[in-house]
Write a structure and sequence with these properties.
Protein name: Amidohydrolase
Strand content: 15-25%
CATH architecture of one domain: Alpha-Beta Barrel
CATH superfamily of one domain: Metal-dependent hydrolases
Radius of gyration: 16 Å
Keywords: Lyase
Pfam families: Amidohydro_2
InterPro entries: ACMSD, Amidohydro-rel, Metal_Hydrolase
Bound molecules: zinc ion
Mean pLDDT: 97
CATH topology of one domain: TIM Barrel
């Protein structure tokens, strides 16, 4: 089954994570596991140039996102959006409230969301870790910017209560999309497909944090039929990214 990986990184995370993602290994995984394209971001806001280089080196394989830290200020974020989105064809924005220590719905995020709105860019936000990146806070941001497609990466991540909240918030706000990497409960992928919407749950790997074969198995065993799995694996990311 062909796939689009809706969330992966390149870069050396070091520290507690001890993982290091390279474009070469990612492409090798993509070829092995029928992943046509990967939505790619850096390890943080300092790595956008490496993502641009990887996208240029492997044409058509990566859908690059510009990684922003809203706490750098609106001017620096605007410069990065102009350089990478306007100048180099990046297709969306990535933020991680946990890594940069801002609450997802902080007003500091507003200038970024306004740029996303005016350019029709989806915004990918890490979810699942207190106190900054919980589904309720991401939902408060999505509520303020109903025109911005907001992807709740990891759909609550490792905690059942947060996963449940991700589903509830996505049901409430039609501009919230879910991505399942790192989220252990396959049954929640099916529940999201059935209750949130057929086009609002996407497959992802969070490479280099997880092996593609593990993330693929969660979709294959979640109880959806083949046509539905094709939506999760491929069609929904294709549609979100406007192809
Ligand atoms: Zn990630």
């Amino acid at each position: 089954m062909k796939k689009i990986d809706a969330h992966a990184h390149i870069g050396d995370f070091g520290s507690w994570a001890g993982v290091d993602g390279s474009p070469e290994q990612l492409i090798a995984f993509m070829d092995e596991y029928e992943i046509e394209q990967t939505v790619l971001c850096a390890k943080d806001h300092t790595g956008n140039e490496g993502v641009a280089e990887a996208a240029a080196r492997y044409p058509g394989r990566f859908i690059p996102l510009v990684y922003l830290n809203p706490l750098e200020g609106a001017d620096i974020c605007r410069e990065k959006v102009e350089t990478y989105v306007d100048g180099k064809g990046f297709r969306g924005i990535k933020m991680n409230p946990l890594r940069h220590a801002f609450v997802a719905d902080d007003t500091a995020v507003d200038p970024v969301m306004e740029m996303a709105r005016s350019r029709h860019l989806p915004v990918f936000i890490h979810s699942g870790h207190p106190p900054y990146s919980l589904p309720w806070s991401i939902a408060l941001l999505a509520e303020r910017f109903p025109e911005v497609k907001t992807v709740m990466i990891h759909m609550g991540h490792g905690h059942g209560v947060y996963i449940d909240a991700a589903l509830k918030m996505a049901k409430r706000f039609p501009n919230i999309y879910l991505e399942m990497s790192g989220m252990p409960m396959g049954v929640k992928i099916r529940q999201a497909y059935e209750e949130v919407g057929h086009d609002r749950i996407m497959f992802g790997t969070d490479y280099p944090f997880h092996h593609p074969s593990v993330e693929i198995q969660k979709v294959l065993t979640c109880g959806l039929d083949e046509a539905a799995m094709q939506d999760v694996f491929y069609n929904n990311a294709k549609k979100l990214l406007g192809e």
